[in-house]
From TrEMBL:
Domain Smr: 273-338
Recorded superkingdom: Bacteria
Identification of the protein by name: DUF2027 domain-containing protein
InterPro entries membership: DUF2027, Smr_assoc-like_sf, Smr_dom, Smr_dom_sf
SUPFAM superfamilies documented for this protein: Smr-associated domain-like
Species for this entry: Carboxylicivirga sediminis
Length: 338
């Protein structure tokens, strides 16, 4: 199928569509209704409306514009304090079945360009290169479509180099991370969760990890058991009655306020549960104009606060937000005004 920039398309395998921004090989980069570029195989696109053909003068002007735009300013989202990069797994054919497959993508949630290599890590420490390339800032790139069982008991070695073009930037040391991938995980439907990057559920494996995540991973089984035992002997935290009236609503996003147990959940899955609660409250109150909602997220390492504010900037743009009262909540809460 002949797909070109400017065409309006819809997707075959997943819901959604948009305007084709550019074409690179077998991939079409489609700008969706949220203004986010989505890489999709051309074979999975259906053209709804074609871009009218250009005259020779327009083609020449377009060629000149492309040269000029090579290092044009790229709009940045948020700050550079917490760049994020994920390997995303999305359900394909026969979800939940061992004979099914998965769509694999790289998600660059940062203001940096990212060079990446993804290799299979062998038992002797040697590597087999699977994928490599460059991802533009705040963009997703399709990597592959693999059978679930092809992913069983794999270790992927991921290297990242972050940089910016045409401007100075804060240096970030090259990142090397090993992701452990086990096929049985993808056979459970509840591991695929709502997220800020797709209009469908996905499993997101973080490549850039914070200090807290690394400390948790470094804990031995003995230390984990000891920590759980100490927690069991701690007095139960007294639950505070939160305010909920026509003018003000307080929502505590601490995970122990939302679910009974976090056993077996990764840090990413915990944050997904917290963000789902945030979106549920926002959607429920979107008609209550003028109402103030305080989301209590705590200070911690700032991960939840950062993700929450990204959602506010992307999905809830028309609602104002600010830090909640320092006297009442310290740095641990965000107030949204509907």
């Amino acid at each position: 199928m002949n797909v070109k920039a400017g065409d309006v398309v819809r997707f075959l395998d997943i819901s959604g569509g948009g305007v084709v921004v550019r074409v690179d090989g077998k991939l079409a980069y489609v700008e969706d209704e949220d203004g986010f570029e989505v890489p999709v195989l051309i074979s999975e696109c259906v053209v709804i409306k074609e871009e009218p053909p250009k005259s020779d003068s327009n083609v020449a002007a377009s060629a000149v514009a492309e040269e000029v735009e090579e290092y044009e300013y790229i709009e940045e989202v948020g700050d550079d304090s917490a760049p994020q990069f994920y390997i995303a797994f999305l359900q394909g054919d026969k979800p939940g079945q061992a004979s099914g497959d998965l769509r694999i993508q790289a998600v660059n949630d940062s203001n940096y360009f990212v060079f990446y290599t993804i290799s299979n890590l062998r038992k002797d420490g040697s590597l087999d290169l699977f994928y490599h390339g460059e991802v533009e800032p705040n963009t997703k790139v399709a990597l592959d479509k693999l059978a679930v069982m092809q992913l069983d008991d794999r270790q992927w070695h991921v290297n990242l180099i972050l940089f910016k073009k045409g401007k100075t930037y804060k240096n970030i040391a090259p990142i090397a991370e090993v992701l452990k991938i086990k096929a049985p995980r993808f056979l459970k439907d509840n591991v695929f969760a709502d997220n800020a990057y797709y209009h469908e559920k996905a499993v997101l494996l973080p490549v850039i990890k914070g200090d807290l995540e690394r400390k948790i991973e470094a804990l031995s089984e003995r230390e984990i058991k000891k920590a759980r035992k100490e927690k069991d002997h701690q007095p139960v935290r007294k639950k505070i009655k939160r305010r909920d009236d026509d003018k003000m609503l307080e929502v505590d996003l601490h995970i122990d306020e939302l679910i009974d147990s976090i056993a077996g959940l990764s840090k990413g899955e915990i944050i997904t549960i917290q963000l789902d609660k945030f979106k549920q409250v926002m959607d429920h109150n979107k008609q209550n104009r003028g109402k103030k909602i305080v989301f209590i997220h705590g200070v911690g390492n700032g991960k939840l606060k950062s993700e929450l504010r990204k959602l506010l900037e992307r999905q809830y743009k028309k609602h104002a937000f600010q830090d909640a009262s320092f006297q009442e909540y310290g740095y641990g809460a965000t107030m949204v005004i509907i």
